[in-house]
Structures are given as C-alpha cells and as structure tokens.
Amino acid sequence: MPVEVDVPEYVVKMGLQPGASEATKATGDSCLFAFYYLLRVGEYTVKGTRNESKQTVQFRIKDVTFFKKDAAGRLRKLPPHASEEDI
User: Fold this and answer.
1) HSE value, Cβ hemisphere, 13 Å, CA-based, for 18
2) What is the C-alpha to C-alpha distance for residues 40 and 13, in angstroms, rounded to an integer?
3) Secondary structure percentages of the chain, helix, strand, coil, to 5
4) How far apart (Å, rounded) are the C-alpha atoms in residues 47 and 55?
5) 46 forms bridges with which residues in the sheet?
6) Quick one: which of 87, 80, 7 has its CA closest to 39?
7) Which residue, among 71, 60, 67, has the nearest Cα to 87 in the 3D structure?
8) Environment class of residue 12 by beta-carbon count within 10 Å: exposed (0-12), middle (13-18) or buried (19+)?
9) pTM of the model
10) β-strand pairing of 67-69 with 54-56
C-alpha cells in the first residue's frame, strides 16, 4: 500500500508536540528516515557504459545531512563531524 508524504510528516508532528515522549520523538524521526530511504532505493541513474543500462543507487550515510537553526532562526547545515549535542 503506497504511503503519501503526509503520513510520515504527521508522525513527525506528533513527536514535535510539547510533552511528547522520547519514544514518540524517535518514532517520528525513524519514520521520516525510513520513508525517504525507501524513496531513495527506488532511484535509478544511468551508468557511464556503452549500453547505458540503469543501476540502482543505494542509500549511503554520506547522503544524510543534518541542519540546525541558528540564533536568527535560519537553517544551517551541520558539518559531517558535528557533535551529538548539535544534532
């Protein structure tokens, strides 16, 4: 059964509610990661060979980027070696 993007977004919103438990927050985050991971697995790229066949591009850890709001409320990309406190 296909899942539209509103489902994982709803679960994330539940985790962002005031008083949400750590388990609810983790569930929201995990659902969002899983949703976009499954989308990513379905992507195809063209190989640079003669036959131009397609090859699935698997999800990699380097494909993950974390952002954090600065003092002015703008999202800023965190460096790959960011601490757990920053993430």
Assistant:
1) 0
2) 22
3) 40, 15, 45
4) 7
5) 54
6) 7
7) 67
8) middle
9) 0.44
10) unpaired
**40 with 59: CB under 8 angstroms?**
yes
Dist CA 25 CA 28 (whole Å): 5
Structure confidence by residue, pLDDT tens digits, 37-64: 777 555 544 455 665 555 656 667 777 7
Q: Which residues of 36-47 are buried (b: 16+ CB within 10 A; e: fewer)?
A: eeeeeeeeeeee
For the stretch 15-26, pLDDT in tens is 999 999 999 999
DSSP state of 74: -
* Rounded distance between C-alpha atoms, residue 27 and residue 60, angstroms: 21
